[in-house]
Specification:
Elements lengths: L1 H58 L17 E5 L21 E2 L2 H4 L18 E8 L7 E10 L4 E3 L4 E4 L2 E9 L3
Parallel strand pairs: 1-3
Antiparallel strand pairs: 2-3, 3-4, 4-7, 5-6
Pfam family, one: PilX_N
Protein name: Type 4 fimbrial biogenesis protein PilX N-terminal domain-containing protein
InterPro entries: PilX_N_dom (IPR025746)
Length: 182
């Protein structure tokens, strides 16, 4: 009788252990998904901040040359759109994200630290990127400026450099509109 009770308890404890391991694994997957999404969002924020600098310098008639960058002004898409909802906006076309239109954020900008010490965080495998396109509203008064669209990727993402599409993993998109008073 004791043997039967012991065997039943062993089976019950095994099932409880199996469920506990399964739940822990599911929790770990959820946490990794949240972490990956956050890394992608932070990468997109970095790209957005960088490209806002490019747009502000262009508005002043200058090229943004910090962090070893050159020719950033030439990458601004001159085709003017009416708003971020415009069907002709370059950010909607995946081919705009490859080639000379997309601005890749320099690694020195991504890895910068205020005190100049070595970066100890895991480095991004896919550089964040952004598009800057000129925008002019049809409203009165007319506002002119830039639509900036940024994309960031976590290290679990895959980006196809020929099509401009992410094929898997965490990816974040952010947009801002910069306008100028005249």
């Amino acid at each position: 009788m004791v043997l039967v009770v012991t065997l039943i308890l062993v089976v019950i404890l095994s099932l409880v252990g199996t469920f506990a391991i399964r739940n822990a694994t599911q929790s770990e997957r959820s946490i990794n998904g949240i972490r990956s999404a956050e890394v992608a969002r932070e990468a997109a924020e970095t790209a957005l901040r960088f490209c806002e600098q490019v747009a502000m310098f262009d508005g002043d008639g200058k090229d943004y040359t910090e962090y070893g960058t050159t020719g950033m002004r030439a990458r601004i898409i001159a085709t003017t759109i009416g708003s971020e909802f415009d069907v002709g906006a370059a950010w909607r076309d995946s081919s705009s994200w490859v080639g000379n239109s997309a601005i890749l954020v320099p690694k020195d900008y991504i890895n910068k630290k205020p005190n100049g010490t070595q970066v100890d965080a895991v480095q991004l495998e896919i550089q964040p990127r952004c598009l800057v396109q000129k925008i002019a509203t049809t409203s009165t008064p007319q506002l002119t400026g830039y639509l900036i669209t940024a994309r960031g990727f976590a290290n679990n993402a895959s980006f196809d450099g020929t099509t401009g599409k992410a094929t898997q993993g965490a990816e974040a998109w952010l947009q801002s509109v910069l306008t100028r008073d005249k």
